[in-house]
Amino acid sequence: MTLHGHKIGFGLPPILRSATADLLTRHGPLLLDWVTCYGSPLNLVWPDALQKNLAALKGVLTERRVGHAVYYGVKVNKSLGLMRAALSAGAGLDVSSLCELRDARRLGAEGVRLVATGPAKTSAFHKELIDCSALISVDSPEELEDLIDGLPADAGPQPILLRLRPRDQSKSRFGMPGDAVVHCLARLTAENRLRFDGLHFHLSGYRWETRVAALSEAADLITKARRMGFSPRMIDIGGGLPIQYVDQVKYRAHLAAQAPEDYRTGKIPDSFYPYGGTLSPADWLHRLLEAEMSQGQSVAGYLAREGLTLAMEPGRALTDQAAITVFRISRVKALGPDSHVIFVEGSSFSACETWFASEFLVDPILVPVTRPAAQSPPIRAYLAGHSCLDEDVISNRWLTFPIAPQAGDLLVYANTGGYQMDLLENEFHRHPMPARLCVIDDAEGRATLVPDTIGEV
């Protein structure tokens, strides 16, 4: 059941794919059975959704005849099922920790399908990356020296990228400016155990225009590298492809109408993810490839002319519509004649946007399980977790429920696969970690749960 939002007409119901909508509207008892069995919160993952998202991006790249390497940014979600789905659909994996690397290897990923990003790789991480010849994005001259120090004397050419920090990202701690890239290239001329494969950058924000500017800067460095005798083959643009959580018209209307009193804190957060953006990931990528870099040449045209592969590490864009998080209500407490707090079994660590001084601007869906819907009036409430922390709030935004929720009812947050459901999860108060299971169709087409483990997914 969708909500009215605090102001009638300005709610933010989630965009749902048909499989999720069908589960919520037609199979509420099944969802309740799953929560009864596995506990609250319950994270449900659809690996096939990732494969559909990947196919959409690859379709754009193929249409524009752009050589490409798509690596799923596994940091976005802990699901092994999503990792396996990416591999089986032809994607590589972007690993940012030793544990992510080991999971990828246990799933059968060869080094040629792995790229390692991040600025603080340990020597142990370097060693295992070298052992499987995974592509390493080198963040700094200091990391380059550490990598060289750890190379075996008889090491074959270890592929690396150099991570560029574009000029307009001068305050970022990630990557290195162009002159440092040139310094690293000079260092590599005397080191035959490393192979310079190209450049990498990853930008904050979600505008394709900033990527075009960074590509232009990278192009100049590619030219310099070739003059120095290198044969770069790749430019990696990282991630940051936006997704659409809610209808863009409703989202704009909500932002225009919201006021401080719409939040229990009396303050509108300073920033939000663009939940109701105008571009899908495929649209965004199409805009990028069609954009002009210089002298009337498009990005796609430049890459083709220079024989360069376009690499990327989408995370959120590949987990779009791939997961939901289900909370069971434990208590509804009146705070006044027109305000309530709804406590759920679980915490904001499993729906974590408030911990970043922001808000997940997607309405939860109420699934009543305790009585006929017509027997209770609407109420206004915010959502809180079960911990003793005053900051444990899932939604600071006042929500108007068309019927009064009751203990035992379910609240479902849609599209939580990207940096939401498990980014901050923990065992605070000794509560167990939330269960995460994969949803697949059985032989009769019925939704079935399987463990999200190496041996099952």
TrEMBL record:
<keyword id="KW-0614">Plasmid</keyword>
<feature type="active site" description="Proton donor">
    <location>
        <position position="388"/>
    </location>
</feature>
<feature type="modified residue" description="N6-(pyridoxal phosphate)lysine">
    <location>
        <position position="75"/>
    </location>
</feature>
<dbReference type="InterPro" id="IPR042152">
    <property type="entry name" value="Y4yA-like"/>
</dbReference>
<dbReference type="InterPro" id="IPR022644">
    <property type="entry name" value="De-COase2_N"/>
</dbReference>
<dbReference type="InterPro" id="IPR029066">
    <property type="entry name" value="PLP-binding_barrel"/>
</dbReference>
<dbReference type="Pfam" id="PF02784">
    <property type="entry name" value="Orn_Arg_deC_N"/>
</dbReference>
<dbReference type="GO" id="GO:0009089">
    <property type="term" value="P:lysine biosynthetic process via diaminopimelate"/>
</dbReference>
<dbReference type="InterPro" id="IPR000183">
    <property type="entry name" value="Orn/DAP/Arg_de-COase"/>
</dbReference>
<protein>
    <submittedName>
        <fullName>LysA, diaminopimelate decarboxylase LysA</fullName>
    </submittedName>
</protein>
<dbReference type="InterPro" id="IPR009006">
    <property type="entry name" value="Ala_racemase/Decarboxylase_C"/>
</dbReference>
<feature type="domain" description="Orn/DAP/Arg decarboxylase 2 N-terminal">
    <location>
        <begin position="67"/>
        <end position="248"/>
    </location>
</feature>
<dbReference type="InterPro" id="IPR022657">
    <property type="entry name" value="De-COase2_CS"/>
</dbReference>
<dbReference type="GO" id="GO:0008836">
    <property type="term" value="F:diaminopimelate decarboxylase activity"/>
</dbReference>
<keyword id="KW-0663">Pyridoxal phosphate</keyword>
